[in-house]
Amino acid sequence: MASSAYPRMYFTGHFYWNPSTYNNDDYAGSSYTKPLTPYDAKKATPTWDTFLDQQHPEVTKANFRHWSQQLYSLGPDTPLGPDQQLPPPEWNFFGGNQCGLVTDEMPVLEQPDHFSKPTGPENITQVRGWTDEDGRYADDGDPWVGLALQFNTAAHLGPFPTQAKLIDTNPTSPFTSQIFADDFQLGDDGSGFTAPVSERLHSRWLYFQRNLNTDKGLMIAGIASATWQTGLRFEDISWNGGSALQDQLRASAGAPGARGLILQFVTYDTLYFNGDYFGVQGANQFPSMVKIRQLYVDYFSALEAYRKGETTQRPQPPCNRAYSRVTGWIGTWKTDEFVTIPGGRVLLPNLMPNQQPGLPAPQAVTPAQGGSAVPLGPGTVEAVGDETTDTLDRITVNLISTIPEWDSTGVRAELGPVHLGIMLPNQTEPTRLVTVVDDSDGTAYQDVYNQYAGLVDIPAASFDTRVSLSQFNSHPLVLLVGDTESASVVLTENPLNAQTNTRGLYVDEPGCAAGPTTHFVVDVTAFGLAPDDQVGLVVAQYGEQWQLVGEHRLVDLFYLTSSGDYAPIDDQTVVDGTSGSVTIGLRGVLPGLPYLVFYPVASGLLAGSALAPSAPMALPPGVHIPETVTWQTAAYYAAVRVLPFHNVAADVFAQWLATEHPDVDQVNHRVFSEVFETFHLMYPVMDFIGTPQKFQEWRGRILQVTDPRHFAASGYMPPTRSLSAGERRILELYDEYLNGVSAPGSPLRKPRQPSPPPRG
Length: 760
Known about the structure:
Layout: E1 8-18, E2 39-40, E3 45-46, H1 48-55, H2 64-67, E4 72-73, E5 85-86, E6 98-101, E7 126-131, E8 137-138, E9 149-151, E10 164-168, E11 177-180, E12 183-187, E13 192-196, E14 201-202, E15 204-207, E16 225-233, E17 238-240, H3 244-253, E18 258-271, H4 288-307, E19 322-334, E20 345-348, E21 379-386, E22 391-398, E23 418-422, E24 431-437, H5 443-452, E25 455-459, H6 469-472, E26 477-481, E27 488-493, E28 496-499, E29 504-507, E30 518-526, E31 536-542, E32 555-560, E33 566-569, E34 573-576, E35 581-588, E36 595-601, E37 617-618, E38 637-642, H7 647-660, H8 664-682, H9 692-697, H10 699-705, H11 725-741
Parallel strand pairs: 29-38
Antiparallel strand pairs: 1-6, 1-7, 1-19, 2-3, 4-5, 6-10, 7-8, 9-12, 10-11, 11-14, 12-13, 13-17, 15-16, 16-18, 18-19, 20-21, 20-27, 21-22, 22-25, 23-24, 23-26, 26-27, 28-30, 30-35, 31-34, 31-36, 32-33, 32-35, 34-37, 36-38
């Protein structure tokens, strides 16, 4: 496994985020009568007409920007508290969705007089230390220590070079974030390496109490954390310079049984306002919403003056990036591992349905500093041993996203010692194996975190209770917190695990397709390994607020049988997951944003019925699929975006071109209105095309950046990934028509206007 493999290197620093906050819909589920963003969750797209007709009928295209500069009182039902006010665009109207690791060079601040970024060696992202192939730690003595890390530095990688992009599959949900990145670089051309990113990164292990925020220094998602992971294939890595760490890591990544390198990091403790203009460090950031609104007002005023010709310099829009702390590591990517999911045996703060009975339910724990009891974040455990002698040699416990901070300064909550236990046969209480961190005041864990990114390596020889490798690999593990005699179970391993590397799924209108139009793979494991007994899998479809949709589905689901055919399934059928891999097909039914939650089913719950690989069975009476789930229960899920259905609109457009033969101006205006105007009005980063004529001039480039073949590239447009297949077809028809119109002899070409007669 990657985190248990030596060598490893560790880094810390900060991560920057620059989303356009009109791609969010933070209050769609509240009773607030006017959601702050013009987003239609029902149709899975920003929709100008829906915004006008259903949410804010008093707003017109002419006064939209004036409206966007107002302040609204939200009322007591919002998560920001009573009597708070927001400008409708919230904290970063002019973002372009770029993101990346903070270095001396990145990000470049457009207005350093207003905004700042973390600076100095302790804040920029760089390598802090490494563990060599023999398990020895060092924080100096190698050229790689101190090197910076960054995404998207190689201009030749990806069709449209740009910074990495943060994209939510479901903009109404915090559970679906993705990072689209083309390449990753450590160091520079003189020392380090560069490689393409093999898969986009998905937010994992979301932990919404990662910071207890007792000093109120954080706001919105500042209290949360997310863990990110991707792989770098060995054959694609370009190595630069040389060092002992490089030699060891290169040898490990290229050895038999390895695919390359794994990059894993966690982002947490996010600040939304940075700079002397705001002056909010260490205090509640929320009043700065009023100040950011003033910057919007100032910008639009300056833009109006520029457009009237009163000034010659186009004003710079205020980009208010947020910054998170980041901690991570790079190690060997093994061939049997996921690429976007943290490897190992997962311990969660709750129990999944349909798992082994008798498992201890995880408990919340109260920090020694006081306050309420809080759950811990997820963690994993990996084992290294000799199968021939059945000997366990050592384990690695990954606590990168497990222990909360007490306040915005990063001080840890004092929880007491952290132990690893195991549920042995015929026991109702866990057997304690070893103390993972002997932490009474938070400092011991902080040292582990700062040096090893939360990875704790423990030799089996130090266990209080000795177990064999086979025992360790076949019984549920638990994490306990507290004194030895009174420790509470805080995380429990669900023996069966079902995950997909592709958490964000995009589905277009199916057209005439009777079967699935796209598919993804769910991997099923037992204690982190391939199942050695029969395992079933249920895929349940949930809608808004994580409610089971029943008959009101947004996608049809299918299961790929052993004969190569797709069989239809729903939340009342169990498919065979015994092979450890299940292919699920999807076909869109209605535009929208469903979640697909995976429920692995233990053989003892299958009522003695043998699962046939080619025929899904009906849901047995003992298998429970909950009507609603929390984020913890939904740890095993994929987020789906069924894109808007515009195929009919494309057909109507084609018929209009063929029968009406409109002139160029008419076509320009129609395409601009149908495809681009919503983004132009509500997504300011796309303001570079301000007129239908400019849209015509840029259509070749537009076709390039909207090509579905480049969907996974950072530079794909629109950044929201909300362009439907029908809209793309309109763009293609538009280009074909205008190419014909511009051909010599075309009756639709505008005649050249005669020159005026010469004077005199």
